[in-house]
Amino acid sequence: MTSTRAALAALMTCTTALALMGASAPAPYPPSSKGDRWPQGTVRTVGKLVARLPGAQAESCSAAIVDSPSGSVVATAAHCISSPERPRKPEAMYFQPAYKSKSGGKSGSKDRGTTGTSEGAGSGDGPKYVLAHGWKVLSWKTAPGWDTDKSLESVLPYDWAFLRIEKRGGRTIQDVYGANKLKTEPVRGGTTATLGYPASSPYDGETLHYCAGKAHRYQRGEIAATNVGALALRPCRLTQGVSGGPWLRGIDKKRGAGTLVAVTSVGSDDELLGRPYPKSAKALLDKFGAKHEHAKHKHAKHKH
User: Fold this and answer.
1) Contacts of 105 (CB under 8 A, 6+ apart)
2) Could you give the count of Cα atoms lying within 13 Å of 299 in the half-sphere of its Cβ?
3) 49-89, pLDDT tens digit by residue?
4) What is the 3-state secondary structure (H, E, C) of the chain?
5) Partner of 63 for a Cys bridge, out of 49, 99, 188, 263, CB 3.0 to 4.6 A?
6) Contact between 281 and 143 (Cβ < 8 Å)
7) Whole-angstrom Cα distance, residue 292 to residue 302?
8) What is the pLDDT of residues 200-234, one digit of tens each?
9) Is the pLDDT score of 45 beyond 50?
């Protein structure tokens, strides 16, 4: 995997407490991690996102429900929809919150990789399950500035997107699972957890893993220009499949939700980078996630 300190890093898409006398210190939540399984198994507002591609192929990412007027919006990375590496848009996309393997991650089926920067594929049945049972994505909106006709290096600062999700039985996905609050820039370094479903070895894409610790925000002169402003967690050993996964702060253990400050974009063998949201993202979310948004909105028109 290309280092995040280079001008162009590898996309993270996967194609296919101490008690004392008289006082106690609360244990941090979640505990610090370099890539462990999530302590509670799943998180209600975080899930597995799968795109069905031409040629009977599938591509896996991660995503999270974000609070919106309609209650029907999920946040992910723009390159999970299309990228300069894979400009063709998906035939369909589905999202399963709180995804948990139905086979214990021991299925022999394969998630075939298609993105040029992918280095492996999941070994479980997750992609097939999500395509068959997940919540359907009706439309999407990538960040202004995300243009698949340009070089990946030039558009990486805009690697975030919102997805509009179907209703089920008159209920929105937020009604059923809850949602994370969006925080836009300025976002400084601080205690952060990033979650997702890594699918390249040694992971299989079937269980939720995370990295947690004090995130660093890269400044000019510390890293290639395209990654200036990104949040970083290091060491973090999550692999492809965590693209689009949420970077959360203030996670409420009971609700399975917190404050969304970024989404996973690129990474290296021991470092993961998240893209914070510019102030303009809030207006875009409010408009795209408005209650009157038509369910049949044509995603083919979303070109930036």
Assistant:
1) 123, 124, 204, 205, 206, 207
2) 21
3) 999 998 889 999 999 999 999 999 999 999 999 999 899 89
4) CCCCCCCCCEECCEECCCEECCEECCCCCCCCEEEEECCCCCCCCEEEEEEEECCCEEEEEEEEEECCCCCCEEEECHHHCCCCCCCCCCCEEEEEECCCCCCCCCCCCCCCCCCCCCCCCCCCCHHHHHHHHCEEEEEEEECCCCCCCCCHHHHHHHCCEEEEECCECCECHHHHHCCEEECECCCCCEEEEEEECCCCCCCCCCCCEEEEEEEEECCECCECHHHCCCEEECCCCCCCCCCCCEEEEEEECCCCEEEEEEEEEEECCCCEEEEEECCHHHHHHHHHCCCCCCCCCCHHHCCC
5) 49
6) yes
7) 18
8) 999 999 999 999 999 999 999 999 999 999 999 99
9) yes
Which tokens is 222 given?
Answer: 């510390």
Which residue type, as a one-letter code, is found at position 137?
V
Assign residue 27 a region: left if phi > 0, alpha if psi is -120 to 50, beta otherwise? Answer: beta
Q: Find the range with the poorest average confidence among 117-121, 161-165, 241-245, 267-271.
A: 117-121
Separation between Cα atoms, residue 299 and residue 217, nearest integer Å: 33
Residue type, 149: D
Nearest alpha-carbon partner for 284 in 257, 255, 304: 304
> For the whole prediction, is pTM greater than 0.85?
no
The answer to whether the beta carbons of residues 11 and 119 sit under 8 Å apart is no
